Amino acid sequence: MKRTVTVQERSWSLRKPFIIARSARNETHTIEVRIDEDGLVGRGEATPTPRYDETMSSVRAALEAFIEAMPERLTRDALLKELAPGAARNALDLALWDLEAKRSKADVGTLTGLGWPREVKSVQTISISPPDEMGREAYALRDFPILKVKLNEENVLERVSAVHQNAPNVKLIVDANESWSFELLVSLAPQLAALGVEMIEQPLSALGDGCLSDYCGPVPIFADESCHTRKDLPRLKGRYDGINIKLDKAGGLTEAIALLKEARALGFDVMLGCMMSSSLGIAPAMLIAPYAKYVDVDAPQLLSGDRKGGIEIRGGEVSDLNPRLWGGRSMGLAC
Question: Which of 163, 168, 226, 327 satisfies CB 3.0 to 4.6 Å to 206 for a cystine?
């Protein structure tokens, strides 16, 4: 067996600035791992996240160190034991799944038992801007079944009202990205419920969410920054109604599947989320979509350009996952 592993950095321009409570960006940066083995190729893409103290250089260094130290033991089990959750482990894990699909001539849906995703529906995200701009964007997205509204602590009701007024038949979820206080959450929740909001994502800091055990508002709360892997679940019980699974946080599809199963067994609802990536990074997450209450895989739609064979979203309907992009059995060149 002849195996080579390479790491490549990519930059992707966004269609418009993407603004959340803690940051704004005009582009995103991803890392791709490629494993070549006996004429077969497995690929995985990950997005380093500054919120979790990741940079392109730190993730690349972690990947190259691990690859150099363990070339003969580059397996998913070894990754779980030797690499911390995060973007580096995610990229390698996804490349190994893709390679196994090519090698075994069975798609990853079959290998995992999750099945190949069909008829997936995704939210579309509206980032922070003045209320009138968010309202105009909501009007353009009024045919989507559900919209995700990014918020900080300022002008919350004005922004959500503008979205609701311009898309009155659309369900809403809001994401505060850790920017609220508990007092603000309690005061806002009833008013947000009246505006069609059916879920609030990560309102409080992950380091200060203990008081959520006292929350009894009308809108369910989901954990994002507070939940990375299965190890977080016991602490979240009684604080959150659901969790947001992202492969970059979990450190790969392997841990994400285990997190999905354990979270559901413990009674959590599940949301599938994503970092800002191309369709190569979104494709593996799509396998979890059929098991999630909410699906947020709209990142490629926010890019100025995507990979060949990437996913498309129209009115919330996600195009079927192209098996040549990722995760399909050996079918010739990848997209």
Answer: 226
